[in-house]
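Revision sheet: structure tokens.
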Amino acid sequence: GHVHLVRRRLESPCRRDPEFPAAIVWTIYYDTPALVSLGEKLNSDYLKRKIRVRWYSDLEGRVTGPAFVEAKLRVGTRRSKERARLPYPAEELAGWDLQDPRLLTFPLLLRDKGILGQDSWQPVMLIRYRRDRFIEPLSNSRVSLDTDISAAAVNRTFVSATDLSP
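Predicted:
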């Protein structure tokens, strides 16, 4: 309810990131049928994997730029990310539902990096949120403000009901 105040407060000491304007981030999160990724998150395991497909739209909803499949990995406190550009334009991908069989092929683009193991990764949920990026001028640090986070769609095989409000 106070996000406009936070955004305004960040704009005072920081400047807007000129490379990355405010945008809507669209992310399809993947998991295995046994929900291994969710289990790692809930258990705060030392090792975590997060597989996702991501693309962006402007604040009016026009999809811009490419789409990527990404793996975020954590080993203890060390984090890393692997990324591969998808063979489909983001504009096309944005129109697919979570049951589209082409979505099953995207995690396989990361297999040669040793990330997936033998598990079958499937799309579980489409999340959308607004991201504003700022640059703090003294340290040149990038600051992101993510707001209006909501589930835009779910795979009914994994999630039986959802509240799609932010």
